[in-house]
């Protein structure tokens, strides 16, 4: 970059001299260290990559003590202060400590510097080097002649030898405050020197030279610590510059006041001198900041270490904010804009936070206009960043831009899509933005404030947003959940109720708005009492603090008081509206029913309950029925006294009335009339039976009669007949299991019901309903048959009742029934869940999809209801055939099987055979695409199953893998060449996971099987065998080649691998070549690459390829000889 030129010029034109520098780890005497001074007086820049000779370094810390003798002092007695001796403590020890004595140590050092600069300068540089982790000493008499490049190259050599210590990255407790103390030291030093040494053009110039040079070296620890010190120097310089600016302005005002007196006296001259000196000092301090910026920042902001990049950006944000007169310009702002694209989330977040702070200050906004125009699109893009924390911060930044009206509303479209994003943190942040910008309209200063009820206005604006999601209630719930925390109007129950009842409306509601407002009310009620309205990703149980529980109870109380008198009015108004009634009815579940008695509102409770009962018989949709059942059951259990008796009586009346309606509807069907009434009342019974047992013995018999007599009934009617029969059997079993005494009559009755139900279900196995893409109702009936059968078998599995008095209840289907069951399941699996038919009622669709069918089948195996020999391989053979949902179910089943029985090789092999058998059946087709697709499915299945045996499991389960391979080979050679493709499709994936000796044995085995076979008679049929053989040959050769290479490496190298030396002293500080240096800057930070895994052939070293090739050739030769 052009910014690099000044520093590069300064460094490269410096006279290079042989540094008289001494490392503390040498072994020479001080007298020998001097050597021939004239001989080493000058050096050329070409020799800068050489470290100083050992004779030029001071030997040890002991030698250092001889050069600078210290008076030994006794250990202070316990309880006495060591403050008088603090001046003798080394600076690095002060920084390593707890930081309490930094200020005192700095003051004492400044005093020493003012008395005798050179020893103090050496002491400070020693601390600087030791902070980077290197023990290195520059002799006092050669301080002025020491060349920065030579010293830094010597320090880099110490790092290459591993003779440094990383205090910053150390886990030791004593270094936990090292970073804070180091920053504090330099800040205190700058402040202490601001009236003297700071401007002597020697002390800080030399420090900055070393810091800048160290920040450009390959060792990461040097760059990290040097960057930390350099960045802090600029921050500290800013505080001095601001003080000088204030002093200059004050002096200027005083001078102007004196000049108005029109008397030029000593006062004016004194003020002129002070103003000139202050201005000169400010120019110097500004130049020092620019020097560090161009020499350090412009290189380190793109360092390979994200921590260094992040520190740079954080510091730049502080500089611009605290010293805008220098840094608030595009020359510096551009770095914040560029790092919005950094690959590290931490760096992007630092840039976003820095910009947030800048936009927070009103005075900065006009200067930021050009920057905003250039980078605002990227800021909006970051709201959808892959890192959640970055996205949340970016949304906050967009809010700042909106507040200053720097971006148009049209650019915010993509942000509103994030209202339904997965991470809740992003949704909440977007929700806050939507509330501030669209609902409360805090950023729109041009419009006057709202007139009238603020809650009603806010709710009206929220309804405008919800109109965009009216067709999808789930998306509406997401939006409500996002905004709820910020929008108080959502908890203004009285306002919402008033709007629904059209009491003095400020806003005229359409039917769509009323539906959305009802959804909003119900969702807000649930949120107010602590319930989740959007599923959580972790599914963890919620825990509330005492304050939160009190707030929830207060919300429940306020809701109940607001609803008591208005609840009947709302139910009457929307009784016939199926889109609204379910939400309104269920609200009572979240109310405090005791308040009805305390507030003397018993009549309103009775009226509400009667209206809910009417709604139950007025509607036949799942949501409305389920809400009514839930509400009435809640009232019958949670109310108290007379109100509870009333609720229970109404529940009993509801059951009796429903059974009467069912009898009447059954008679109508038997008489040949319409089935609609029977279907609706069966749905009502089903929803009621899901929550409580109901005696339907007479209805059970009628259901059997209808099923036997009317085989042409609508599939949905049949489904609900079977469901209600199953629920009755389940409740009867539950009653018997929980009874202390069981009568023979109840047991016989249950067995009779179960057997009758199984007969009806098995009828549909023998005469399955029409299943296909165009028969949705038939698909749903088939799904119901499969799931009910599985549930019945699980309920009555023999393991539940063995060795008990109820042993006769145990049941297990025979193999023929099981095969028919799986055949029907397979037909369901072939139907995509994405196939839609608008003519079919989808309210129970989540209970009748192919995932449900697969779960039902897998449950039979996982619960040991049936033997796993037949069904387990069939299920696993469908592992990769039907998408991610089915794959997850099969994966879970495999996990259960492996926990129960560690040896699953037989099941896996049988699953591979079943999948291959399906491929052979499809291979009879002339469609090449179908054949290749089915073959690929076999390979994918084998790859997924073999992938289970990875890492340590590969060695642990070697016998299982070997068994699959050997038996698979046997199966392939049972019918040659027809089954040989099984080797390539299935066996190869497992065989390649075996070690080389096993692979050689396998190769010998298959070679022996083909000794007397002429493969040339059918080349295409034997091609899979050749592919299998060649693949294993190559695998075996590669494994052995890598093993040989590992052994060769082990014998040659000892201990830690050496790191490649890639340091050129001449180019080390040549900033024109900084891009090359950046590419290789992490050379010393990375270990030698480890040998890659078996699968990564492309990355293998050349030596591996050569050895593998030679092994392969030798094996092929031996094969030809055989």
TrEMBL record:
SCD domain segment(s): 297-382
Any one biological process term the GO annotation gives: sister chromatid cohesion
GO MF annotation: an example: chromatin binding
Pfam families xrefs: HEAT_SCC3-SA, SCD, STAG
Cellular-component GO terms for this entry: chromatin; cohesin complex; nucleus
Extent of Basic and acidic residues compositional bias: 22-60, 1061-1075
Biased composition (Acidic residues): 1076-1099
Disordered: annotated segments: 1-88, 1044-1106
Database matches in PANTHER family: LD34181P-RELATED, STROMAL ANTIGEN
Protein known as: SCD domain-containing protein
């Amino acid at each position: 970059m052009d910014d690099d030129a000044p520093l590069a010029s300064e460094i490269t034109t410096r006279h290079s001299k042989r540094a008289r520098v001494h490392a503390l780890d040498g072994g020479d005497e001080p007298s020998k260290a001097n050597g021939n001074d004239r001989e080493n007086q000058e050096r050329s820049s070409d020799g800068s990559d050489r470290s100083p000779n050992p004779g030029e370094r001071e030997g040890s810390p002991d030698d250092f003590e001889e050069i600078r003798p210290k008076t030994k002092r006794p250990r202070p007695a316990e309880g006495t202060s060591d403050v008088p001796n603090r001046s003798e403590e080394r600076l690095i020890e002060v920084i390593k400590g707890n930081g309490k004595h930094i200020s005192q140590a700095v003051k004492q050092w400044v005093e020493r510097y003012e008395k005798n600069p050179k020893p103090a300068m050496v002491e400070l540089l020693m601390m600087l080097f030791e902070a980077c982790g290197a023990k290195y000493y520059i002799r006092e008499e050669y301080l002025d002649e020491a060349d920065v490049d030579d010293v830094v190259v010597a320090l880099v050599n110490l790092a290459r030898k591993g003779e440094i210590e990383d205090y910053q990255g150390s886990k030791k407790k004593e270094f936990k405050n090292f970073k804070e103390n180091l920053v504090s030291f330099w800040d205190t030093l700058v402040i202490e020197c601001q009236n003297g040494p700071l401007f002597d053009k020697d002390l800080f110039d030399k420090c900055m030279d070393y810091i800048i040079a160290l920040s450009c070296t390959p060792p990461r620890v040097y760059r990290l610590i040097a960057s930390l010190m350099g960045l802090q120097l600029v921050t500290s310089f800013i505080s001095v510059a601001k003080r000088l600016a204030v002093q200059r302005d004050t002096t200027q005002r005083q001078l102007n006041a004196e000049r108005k007196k029109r008397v030029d006296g000593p006062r004016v001259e004194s003020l002129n001198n002070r103003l000139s000196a202050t201005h000169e000092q400010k120019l110097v301090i500004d130049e020092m900041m620019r020097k560090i910026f161009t020499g350090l920042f412009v290189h380190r902001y793109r360092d390979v270490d994200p921590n260094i990049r992040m520190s740079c950006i954080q510091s730049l944000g502080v500089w611009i904010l605290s010293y805008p007169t220098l840094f608030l310009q595009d020359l510096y702002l551009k770095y914040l804009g560029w790092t919005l694209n950094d690959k590290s989330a931490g760096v992007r977040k630092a840039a976003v936070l820095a910009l947030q702070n800048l936009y927070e200050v009103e005075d900065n906004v006009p200067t930021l206009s050009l920057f905003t125009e250039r980078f605002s699109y990227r800021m909006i893009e970051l709201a959808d960043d892959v890192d959640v924390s970055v996205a949340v911060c970016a949304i906050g930044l967009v809010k700042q831009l909106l507040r200053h009206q720097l971006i148009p509303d049209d650019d915010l479209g993509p942000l509103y899509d994030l209202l339904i994003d997965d991470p809740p943190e992003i949704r909440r942040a977007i929700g806050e933005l939507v509330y501030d910008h669209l609902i409360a309209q805090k950023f729109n200063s041009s419009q006057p404030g709202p007139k009238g009820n603020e809650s009603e206005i806010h709710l009206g604006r929220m309804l405008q947003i919800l109109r965009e999601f009216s067709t999808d209630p789930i998306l509406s719930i997401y939006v409500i959940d996002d905004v709820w925390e910020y929008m108080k109007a959502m908890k203004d129950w009285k306002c919402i109720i008033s709007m629904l009842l059209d009491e003095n409306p400020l806003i005229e509601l359409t039917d769509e708005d009323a539906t959305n407002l009802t959804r909003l009310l119900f969702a807000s009620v649930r949120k107010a009492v602590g319930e989740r309205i959007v599923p959580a990703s972790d599914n963890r149980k919620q825990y509330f603090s005492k304050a939160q529980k009190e707030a929830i109870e207060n919300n429940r109380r306020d809701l109940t008081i607001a609803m008591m008198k208005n609840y009947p009015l709302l139910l009457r108004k929307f009784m016939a509206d199926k889109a609204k009634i379910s939400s309104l009815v269920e609200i009572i579940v979240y109310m405090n029913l005791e308040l009805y008695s305390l507030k003397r509102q018993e009549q309103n409770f009775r009226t509400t309950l009667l209206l809910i009962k009417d709604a139950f018989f007025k509607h036949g949709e799942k949501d409305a029925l389920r809400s009514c059942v839930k509400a009435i059951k809640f009232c019958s259990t949670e109310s108290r006294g007379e109100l509870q008796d009333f609720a229970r009586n109404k529940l009993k009346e509801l059951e009796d009335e429903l059974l009467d309606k069912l009898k009447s509807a059954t008679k109508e069907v038997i008489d040949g009339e319409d089935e609609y009434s029977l279907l609706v009342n069966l749905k009502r019974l089903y929803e009621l039976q899901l929550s409580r047992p109901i005696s339907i013995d007479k209805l059970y018999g009628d259901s059997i009669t209808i099923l036997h007599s009317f085989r042409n009934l609508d599939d949905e009617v049949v489904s609900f007949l079977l469901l209600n029969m199953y629920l009755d059997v389940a409740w009867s079993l539950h009653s018997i299991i929980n009874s202390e005494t069981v009568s023979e009559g109840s047991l016989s009755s249950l067995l009779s019901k179960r057997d009758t139900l199984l007969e009806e279900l098995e009828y549909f196995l023998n005469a399955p309903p029409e299943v296909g893409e165009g028969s949705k109702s038939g698909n749903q009936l088939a799904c119901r048959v499969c799931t009910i059968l599985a549930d019945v078998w699980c309920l009555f599995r023999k393991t539940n009742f063995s060795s008990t008095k109820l042993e006769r209840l145990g049941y297990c289907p025979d193999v023929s029934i099981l095969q028919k069951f799986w055949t029907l399941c397979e037909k369901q699996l072939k139907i995509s869940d994405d196939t839609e038919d608008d003519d079919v009622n989808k309210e129970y669709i989540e209970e009748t999809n192919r995932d449900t069918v697969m779960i039902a089948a897998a449950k039979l195996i996982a619960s040991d209801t049936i033997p796993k020999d037949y069904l387990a391989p069939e299920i696993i053979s469908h592992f990769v055939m039907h998408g991610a949902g089915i794959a997850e179910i099969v994966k879970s089943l495999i996990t259960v099987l492996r926990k129960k029985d560690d040896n699953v090789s037989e099941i896996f092999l049988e699953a591979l055979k079943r999948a291959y058998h399906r491929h052979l059946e499809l291979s009879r087709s002339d469609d090449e695409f179908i054949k290749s697709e089915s073959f690929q499915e076999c390979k994918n299945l084998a790859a997924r199953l073999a992938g289970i045996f990875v890492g340590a499991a590969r060695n642990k389960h070697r016998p299982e893998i070997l068994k699959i391979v050997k038996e698979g080979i046997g199966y392939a050679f049972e019918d040659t060449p027809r089954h040989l493709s099984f080797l390539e499709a299935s066996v190869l994936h497992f065989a390649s996971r075996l070690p080389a000796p096993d692979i050689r044995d396998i190769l010998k085995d298959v070679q022996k099987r083909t000794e007397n076979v002429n493969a040339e008679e059918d080349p295409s049929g034997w091609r899979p065998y050749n592919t299998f053989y060649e693949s294993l040959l190559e695998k075996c050769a590669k494994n052995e080649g890598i093993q040989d290479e590992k052994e060769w490496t082990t014998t040659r190298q000892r201990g830690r691998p050496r790191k490649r030396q890639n340091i050129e002293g001449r180019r080390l500080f040549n900033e024109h070549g900084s891009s090359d240096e950046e590419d290789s800057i992490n050379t010393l930070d990375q270990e030698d690459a480890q040998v890659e895994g078996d699968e990564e052939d492309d990355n293998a070293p050349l030596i591996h390829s050569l050895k593998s090739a030679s092994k392969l050739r030798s094996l092929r030769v031996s094969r030809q000889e055989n």
